[in-house]
From TrEMBL:
Belongs to the trans-sulfuration enzymes family. The keyword Lyase applies. Pfam families: Cys_Met_Meta_PP. Its cofactor is pyridoxal 5'-phosphate. Signal peptide: none annotated. InterPro entries: Cys/Met-Metab_PyrdxlP-dep_enz, Cys_b_lyase_bac, PyrdxlP-dep_Trfase, PyrdxlP-dep_Trfase_major, PyrdxlP-dep_Trfase_small. Keywords: Lyase, Pyridoxal phosphate. GO terms for molecular function: cysteine-S-conjugate beta-lyase activity; pyridoxal phosphate binding. This is Cystathionine beta-lyase. GO terms for biological process: L-cysteine catabolic process to pyruvate; transsulfuration. The modification N6-(pyridoxal phosphate)lysine is found at residue 217.
C-alpha cells in the first residue's frame, strides 16, 4: 500500500492487480475523502498541527507543507508509481522541468552524459548549456547503438539518457541491452516514456533506473494541463526527492487534479490512439506522395522486431516523409486542414500535424530520406475523417508543388 494514500475501502492488499485497465481505475484512490470517488483539489501552503509534539515531528507527517505535496499531488504520484512499477514518483510543473531536474541532479564538473541523438530537441539544447556553464560533457550517440554503447562509457560517465521511440524520427532503442551495460559500469539510466503513456512500455522491467514523463501528454490526455513526473527505482528515489526539494519545485493542485482525472481513461484512450494511428499510417504508406511512414508498429520500420519485443502497442504519434520540392507548397497543404491542428505538444484527444526540420538537431546520425519530414499525432476522431482530411491536404500539395 502506498506511503501516501490510505487503503481504499474494500480493496484487498493481498490481491493487487497487474492489469493496467484496473490500475488506472483504482491506483491513487483512498477512502479518506468522505467517500468521494476522486481525490479533491487541495489548495494548501500552511499545514497546521494540533500539538507542539506533532509539529516537532512534522518531518514524518504525510502532509506537512504545501510545497512538499498535498493529497491531490500525492494521489497522482501514487497512481503513476503503480502504473510504472516504480518505488515512488515526484511531480514537477512540466515535462521539461522533469527532464532538467533529473539531469541537474546527476551533473557535476567533469561528469559525462550519454544522450540519444534522437532526443527531444530542448533536451539537447539544455545539455549544451550544462556543458558551457557547468562543465558537463555530453556525448550524443546513435539511438540504434544497442550493446555497443559500452564503447562510449568512461569512468566519468554518470548517466545514459534514452528516448524510445526517438523524437521526430522514432527509432526504437534496445533498452535491455543498454541497461545491462550501464549496470555493469555503475551508470544510471533514464528514459522518457511519454510516447507509451506508461502503458505500452514498462522500462523498469527492462532495467531502467528512472522514468520521466511529460504528463502533459498521454497521461493527462486533454491538452489542458502542464505537468511532469519522475518515477524512480528505490536506489534513486531519495536523490530525486531531494532535488525536487532543493529546487523548490511543486506541481499545482489544479493541474494535478486534471491529470489524475485523465489518468483514469489512459488505457482506453491509448487503445483508440493505437487503432486510429495504425489505420492512418497504413493509408499514408500507400499514398504516392508519401516517401515513407515512420511508425514502429509497421513491418516497414527498421526496428519493428525490437518494438514487438519491448512494447505492447503504439500510441498515435509517428512520422512520415512527403515528396515536396518547394517548401512554399506546405502552406496550401497545411492551411486548409479541417481536423488536424497545427501546434506544439501531442497526446491529447485531438489530431495534430506539423512539418519538422532536423537542422541542428542531430550530431551522431543523419536522416535516410530526402523529402519533408512531418510529425503527426492521430487523435480520437474517426479515422475516415482524418484520412479524408489528409487526402485533400496532399492533393493541395500536389497542385501547389511544381516539382511533384
Amino acid at each position: 500500500m502506498s506511503a501516501h494514500q490510505d487503503k481504499k475501502a474494500g480493496q484487498a492488499d493481498t490481491h493487487p492487480s497487474t492489469n493496467d485497465e484496473t490500475i488506472v481505475t483504482h491506483a491513487g484512490r483512498s477512502s479518506g475523502h468522505f467517500g468521494a470517488v476522486n481525490t479533491p483539489v487541495y489548495h494548501a501552503s500552511t499545514i497546521l498541527f494540533p500539538t507542539l509534539a506533532a509539529y516537532e515531528q512534522k518531518a514524518t507527517a504525510p502532509v506537512r507543507y504545501g510545497r512538499r505535496g498535498t493529497p491531490t499531488t500525492m494521489a497522482l504520484e501514487d497512481a503513476i508509481s503503480t502504473l510504472e512499477g516504480a518505488a515512488g514518483t515526484v511531480l514537477t510543473p512540466s515535462g521539461m522541468s522533469a527532464v532538467t531536474t533529473t539531469l541537474i541532479a546527476h551533473a557535476g564538473p567533469g561528469v559525462e552524459f550519454l544522450i540519444s541523438d534522437a532526443v527531444y530537441p530542448p533536451v539537447r539544447a539544455f545539455c549544451r548549456r550544462l556543458n558551457e556553464q557547468f562543465g558537463v560533457k555530453t556525448v550524443f550517440y546513435d539511438p540504434c547503438i544497442g550493446p555497443d554503447i559500452a564503447a562510449l562509457v568512461t569512468d566519468r560517465t554518470r548517466l545514459i539518457w534514452m528516448e524510445s521511440p526517438g523524437s521526430h524520427t522514432f527509432e526504437i532503442q534496445d533498452i535491455a541491452a543498454i541497461t545491462q551495460v550501464a549496470r555493469a559500469h555503475g551508470v544510471t539510466t533514464v528514459i522518457d516514456n511519454s510516447w507509451s503513456g506508461g502503458h505500452f512500455l514498462k522500462p523498469f522491467r527492462l532495467g531502467v533506473d528512472i522514468v520521466v514523463h511529460a504528463a502533459t501528454k498521454y497521461i493527462g490526455g486533454h491538452a489542458d494541463a502542464m505537468l511532469g513526473a519522475i518515477a524512480c527505482n528505490e536506489d534513486n528515489l531519495g536523490k530525486m526527492r531531494k532535488a525536487i526539494s532543493d529546487f523548490g519545485l511543486c506541481a499545482g493542485p489544479d493541474d494535478a487534479y486534471l491529470v489524475l482525472r485523465g489518468f483514469r481513461t489512459l488505457v482506453t484512450r491509448l487503445k483508440q490512439h493505437n487503432e486510429n494511428g495504425l489505420e492512418v499510417a497504413r493509408w499514408l504508406e500507400a499514398h504516392p506522395l508519401v516517401e515513407r511512414v515512420i511508425h514502429p508498429a509497421l513491418a516497414s520500420h527498421p526496428q519493428h522486431a525490437l518494438w514487438r519485443e519491448q512494447f505492447t502497442g503504439a500510441s498515435g504519434l509517428f512520422g512520415f516523409v512527403i515528396r515536396c520540392r518547394d517548401k512554399a507548397a506546405l502552406g496550401p497543404m497545411m492551411d486548409g486542414l479541417s481536423y488536424f491542428g497545427m501546434g506544439s505538444s501531442w497526446g491529447g484527444f485531438e489530431s495534430l500535424l506539423i512539418p519538422v526540420s532536423l537542422d541542428g538537431k542531430r550530431e551522431a546520425t543523419r536522416p535516410a530520406w530526402q523529402g519533408q519530414l512531418m510529425r503527426i499525432h492521430v487523435g480520437l476522431e474517426h479515422p475516415e475523417d482524418l484520412i479524408g482530411d489528409l487526402d485533400r491536404a496532399l492533393e493541395r500539395l500536389s497542385m501547389a508543388d511544381s516539382g511533384v
